[in-house]
Amino acid sequence: MTQAYSSTHDHPGVKFHDSQFLVFMNRVLAMMVAAVCCLLTKQPRHGAPMYKYSFASLSNILSSWCQYEALKYVSFPTQVLAKASKVIPVMLMGKLVSNRSYEYWEYLTALLISAGVSLFLLSSGQEKRPSTITTFSGLFILAGYIVFDSFTSNWQDALFSHKMSPVQMMFGVNLFSCLFTVGSLIEQGAFFHSFSFMAQHPEFGLHAGLLSICSACGQLFIFYTIRQFGAAVFTILMTLRQALAILLSCLLYGHAVSPLGALGIATVFLALFLRVYARSRLKAKRPAQGLVPAVQKV
């Protein structure tokens, strides 16, 4: 969207401005990839009603809209804190959607990860983006982003109880995302105009296709992670991704990490260590408890 297509010495070229069409392209290719995988590989018997996919698709669209719209009304630190603190709302939404229970140490480590990532991101990004005044409207929209985003992953996690595969989930969610997005594009009159732009500028089609391939591959990992580890672990990984991206940038380009950022990194690693340690102790405790009745019988 920042590149000028068909530029010459006499003409600066034209830019593509409709981000919603790029989302539509991503969803179409992801749906096609999932459909091919379903046809070529053996899949479990599908038992979920198709309409249930629409809930995750609609909440994903609404969370994306709230995320971008909130940028007009909230400051950069407020946005960073909201994104980094999604782990706790996701766990609370898990109790609401799936009646999932979490141990106290899971809440504690989630809180530490959110605090550590917040410290690191704030120390690394305060001067990179201009801040706006935080308003009540911005906080309300930001709360909507957190609620919808928390619901999306937990609803997908709940759908996996129907014993479906990640590619089946990927097909169902993207099918409804395509329907919702194409309806919006046609209503705005941008659907055919975008295809006309692609026909006039083939290079744009290649770029949009590459973007869609990356998005489809990313979705395969997303749905597999949610199925295997649950919505809370997936959100922790997505939260850590933000910090790792900035840390990698610091290492590659020689940017210094501030003392506050170093404290944030140390807090995150401490939380991850506590999480792994607590989980390993819990796994070691369960077999030991299972042996007690057998010993008593002997």
Describe the structure.
The structure is a single chain. The chain has helices at residues 19-40, 51-70, 76-84, 87-98, 104-125, 136-159, 166-188, 191-200, 202-229, 231-253, 259-297. The chain has 298 residues and is mostly helical. It has one domain. The protein is globular, with a radius of gyration of 22 Å. It starts with 18 loop residues before the first helix and ends with a helix. The model is unreliable at 294-298 (pLDDT under 50).
What are the SSEs and their pairings?
Blueprint lengths: L18 H22 L10 H20 L5 H9 L2 H12 L5 H22 L10 H24 L6 H23 L2 H10 L1 H28 L1 H23 L5 H39 L1
Helix pairs in contact: 1-7, 1-9, 2-6, 2-7, 3-5, 4-6, 4-10, 5-10, 5-11, 6-10, 7-9, 8-9, 9-10
What would the keywords be for this entry?
298 residues; mainly alpha; 78% helix; disordered C terminus
